[in-house]
Design goal:
Elements: E1 15-18, H1 21-31, E2 35-40, E3 46-51, E4 54-60, E5 69-73, H2 77-86, E6 90-97, E7 102-108, E8 114-120, H3 141-153, H4 158-170, H5 178-190
Parallel strand pairs: 1-4, 5-8
Antiparallel strand pairs: 2-3, 3-4, 6-7, 7-8
Length: 207
């Protein structure tokens, strides 16, 4: 029977049983890049560890990793993968592009639980056959330099990066993840871009 309710759910909190709550929380924060949201009890019998806006619970109990895993969608799986490797985290499945539209990898925590981290592959799906045409485009010098750096950072051609940005703009949404936006802010500082998104209305080209 189909539920007649329109159910709204904004958060979920997977719970993992661990023999030592403090040790598990310390491992997640020092090795995986989480931060501690809370601990409960003296000594703690429960803790919440956060990755971005996602929180998982670590509860006192007998670990049962068999058939249990937790998956996280992150902004840049490659950067997190490099960090986890540097921290000596056991990699169960190396990072790669998957047929199900994710670039992800799997690690094992200190109690045997498998954790998956990945980001969406927007190139997934049937190819779209197109014809590209030359367009006479002139860009502000610093903005052009940022575009070149951004395309390289996103592993895209300049044309593809512009197409992505234009298509998202036409839909009224942005194409960049939070991690990419932080990188863009650094690029703006690198190239000395001191104008905002309305700056182009005031551009006066030097003769």
């Amino acid at each position: 029977m189909t539920s007649p309710l329109q159910v709204e759910c904004e958060q979920q909190h997977p719970s993992l049983a661990v023999p030592d709550v403090l040790a598990a929380a310390e491992w997640y924060t020092s090795r995986l890049g989480f931060f501690t949201g809370f601990t409960w009890g003296t000594p703690p019998t429960m803790a919440g560890v956060n990755l971005g806006n996602v929180q998982i619970f670590l509860q006192q109990g007998e670990p049962s990793p068999r058939g249990c895993s937790v998956s996280f969608v992150v902004g840049d799986a490659d950067a997190l993968y490099a960090y986890h490797q540097a921290q000596g985290v056991e990699v169960v499945v190396p990072i790669d592009d998957r047929d199900y539209g994710m670039r992800d990898y799997r690690v094992r925590d200190l109690n045997g639980y498998e954790l998956s981290f990945g980001h969406h592959l927007f190139s997934a799906g049937e190819p779209l056959v197109i014809e590209r045409v030359p367009v006479d485009v002139r860009l502000e010098k610093r903005l052009a330099a940022l575009l070149l750096d951004l395309a390289a950072f996103k592993r895209m051609s300049v044309s593809s990066c512009l197409e992505e940005t234009l298509l998202h703009t036409l839909d009224g949404v942005g194409p960049h993840t939070k991690a990419q936006l932080r990188h863009i802010q650094a690029l703006k500082e690198k190239h000395g871009i001191d104008y905002d998104s309305h700056g182009s209305y005031r551009f006066v080209e030097q003769s």
